[in-house]
Design brief:
Length: 104
């Protein structure tokens, strides 16, 4: 049984030179890192105005990050795995136990 969810892969040139997949992968990495940095900036904002400015940039960044991911998925450069219901239930039970342990 194939548990993968994917699109046909768009082939790119191999070799030492960067190709479209390399560039977009680099862009995605940068957007992820910038998003993390803006979360930290929001938590350390000294006033509401600064917080709101950081928040707007953050929301733009995560929107761009999602767009880039969607492009990569459509081009077949991201492959997802279908989660089995049993695995989902096991994870849920584990997280619920951890949550309950924290609230005792």
């Amino acid at each position: 049984m194939n548990n993968q969810i994917s699109n046909p892969k768009v082939e790119v040139p191999t070799g030492i030179q960067c190709n479209d997949k390399d560039y977009i992968n680099s862009l995605l990495s940068c957007l992820k890192e910038m998003s993390k940095n803006y979360v930290m900036a929001m938590t350390e904002a000294s006033n509401e105005c600064l917080f709101e400015k950081h928040k707007q940039v953050f929301l733009t960044l995560i929107s761009l990050q999602r767009e880039v991911y969607e492009i990569m998925f459509r081009k077949g450069w991201y492959i997802l795995e279908k989660a089995e219901l049993q695995k989902i239930n096991q994870k849920h039970q584990m997280l619920m136990k951890e949550y309950q342990d924290m609230n005792q």
